[in-house]
Design goal:
With 122 residues, the protein is mostly beta strands. It has no helices and 11 strands. The strands form 2 sheets. Strands 2, 4, 5, 6, 9, 10 and 11 form a 7-stranded mixed β-sheet that branches. The protein has a 4-stranded antiparallel β-sheet with strand order 1-3-8-7, with no helix packed on it. A hairpin with a 6-residue loop joins strand 4 (33-38) and strand 5. It is globular.
């Protein structure tokens, strides 16, 4: 199993970024995928998750209306589009593979990507 992330970087408050996660080594369309984040000194939290078909989606309350998780099964890729970014969104973001197709509970995810830094500051 491989999940390789790209995107991220520095952006000013109110800006946008897109994270990508390309997967290999498993049947991508069978599994839920997720984006977690971890800010310095804080626990890792589930920011967004999507079921195998895209029919079930979860967002952390603080990102609702600003973040969009999308998957393209033919490309084995999941994206996190982030708009109206705030300083509190600053964190290392991790892509993760689910252990099943529809369970979006945080404990259902493993096989982490390498992490991508997102920094939001003036």
């Amino acid at each position: 199993v491989q999940v390789v992330q790209s995107g991220g970087g520095w952006v000013q408050p109110g800006g946008s970024l897109r994270l990508s996660c390309a997967a290999a080594g498993f049947t991508f369309s069978n599994y839920a995928m997720a984006w977690f984040r971890q800010a310095p000194g804080k626990d890792r939290e589930l920011a967004a998750a999507i079921s195998w078909s895209g029919a079930i989606i979860y967002y952390l309350d603080s990102v609702k209306g600003r973040f969009t998780i999308v998957r393209e099964n033919p490309k084995s890729t999941v994206y996190l589009q982030m708009h109206d970014l705030k300083p509190e969104d600053t964190a290392t973001y991790y892509c993760a593979k689910g252990k099943s197709g529809n369970n979006l509970a945080p404990g259902n995810f493993g096989s982490w990507g390498q992490g991508t830094q997102v920094t939001v500051s003036p």
